[in-house]
Amino acid sequence: MELRVLRYFLAVVDEQNISHAAEKLYVSQPTISRQLRELEDELGVTLFERGSRTIDLTTAGEYFVNQARQIVALADKTVANVQRTQEISGSIVIGSAEAPMMATVAAAIGRLRENAPKVSANIYSTDANDVHMRMKTGLFDFGVVMEPTGKSDYHFINLPGTTGWGVLVRRDSPLGRRASVTVKDLRDQQVITPQQHGSIDILTDWLGSSENRLDIVATYNLLYNASIMVTAGVGIALCLDGIINTANTDLRFVPLAPRLEGHASLIWPKTGQMSPAAVAFLEVMQEILPNNE
Fold first, then answer.
1. If we measure between CA atoms, which residue out of 234, 247, 232, 246 comes closest to residue 166?
2. Are 163 and 269 in contact (CB under 8 A)?
3. Does the pLDDT value for residue 293 go beyond 50?
4. Within a 13 Å sphere around the CA of 228, how many CA atoms are in the beta-carbon half?
5. Which residue has the higher pLDDT, 230 or 198?
6. Domains and CATH numbers, the chain
7. Contact 270, 251 (CB under 8 A)
8. How far apart are CA 268 and CA 291, in angstroms?
9. Inter-axis angle of helices 3-15 and 29-43, nearest 10
10. Rounded to an integer, what distance in angstroms lies between the CA atom of residue 40 and that of residue 12?
C-alpha cells in the first residue's frame, strides 16, 4: 500500500468525482481508476459503490477513508520534521481541551515562533478521550487535558491557573437570574454534559450522592455546539467558565455552589522519539514554568 495511492483515494473521496480528482492531482483518469482497483484488490474489499453518478463509499470504504487520513497525516508530519536544515523546523500537533489554561501553551507557542520561526504549531480542539487515542497513534505530540485524567503513560506538566464549573443557561430562564446553582437546582433540569470520563467523574463526586442523578438529554465534546443546544432550549450545559463569551448573547454562565474548580495538564508520551520541533516546544514550556522541570 503506497502513500501515493492513498492520496489518490482521498482526492477522489474529497472531490466526489474521479475526473476532478485527476485534474487536481495532474494525473490521468485511467491511472487513478486503475490504482483504485488495485487498491481494492490488495485490501480484498470494495471501497466504492459502482454504477452511480456520484462517488459513494461502501461500509468498508467509510472505515478506510478515516484510517487513510490518519496514515497520510502522520506521514506528512513525519516528513516535515525530518526534512530540516541546521535551523529547527517542522511541526507540532497539540490536542487540546477547551480551557482558559491553554493561555500558557499559547504563550509558549508565541515564544517558540521567536526562537524557531520555521516551526509551526497545529492545535486540534477535542476532549481527553480523543487526545489519549490520537497520542497513542502518534498523531498528537502533546495534549492539554482537564483533570482528572489518566497520566500513568505520560510525562506531564500541571498548567497554572484554575477555572470554575458551572452551567450555561438562557438569560430568560429561572436559573439565568441566579447568582449560583446548587445540586437541588439541577434536579429538575434537562442537562447537557461533557463526554470526557474524567469530567463526568468529578461532576458525579460534586453531586455528593448516587441518589442525585441528572436528567442527561445530550452530551458534547466542544462547548460551542452545546451552547447552540442551550439557545435552542434543549437543556442547560454543565461546563467550565471562560470558554464561551456570553456578552451580547442570550446565554449566561452561572457557577456551581459549592465551587468546583477545574485544572489542566500538558501531557506527552513517555515512549517514542520526540521530533526536534517537539523538543524545542517543551524546552520553551519549561522556561516559562521552571518549577516543572
1. 246
2. no
3. no
4. 4
5. 230
6. 3-79 (1.10.10.10), 88-161+264-292 (3.40.190.10), 163-262 (3.40.190.10)
7. no
8. 18
9. 110
10. 14
Round to whole Å and give the CA distance between 118 and 191: 45
Whole-angstrom Cα distance, residue 221 to residue 49?
A: 33
pTM for the complete prediction?
0.67
| Residue whose grid cell is 488495485 | 38
Strand order across the 89-96 sheet: 118-125, 89-96, 142-146, 264-269, 154-158
For the residues of 69-89, what is the DSSP string, one character each?
HHHHHHHHHHHHHHS--SS-E
Say which residue the cell 447568582 belongs to: 179
Give Cα 86 to chain centroid, integer Å.
32
46: left (phi over 0), alpha (psi -120 to 50) or beta: beta
Q: Which residue has the higher pLDDT, 1 or 182?
A: 182
Contact residues for 2 (Cβ-Cβ < 8 A; gap 6+) = none
Q: Environment class of residue 106 by beta-carbon count within 10 Å: exposed (0-12), middle (13-18) or buried (19+)?
A: exposed
- Picking from 142, 46, 71, the residue whose alpha carbon sits closest to that of residue 102 is 142
Residue 55 · residue 17 · CB < 8 Å: yes
> d(Cα 1, Cα 170) in Å, to the nearest integer?
52
Whose cell is 499559547? That residue is: 106
Report pLDDT digits (tens) over 67-91.
999 898 888 877 766 655 457 888 9
Q: For 120-151, write each residue's pLDDT tens digit.
A: 999 999 888 889 889 888 899 999 998 878 78
For the residues of 88-146, what is the DSSP string, one character each? -EEEEEEEE-S-TTHHHHHHHHHHHHHH-TEEEEEEEE--HHHHHHHHHTTS-SEEEEE
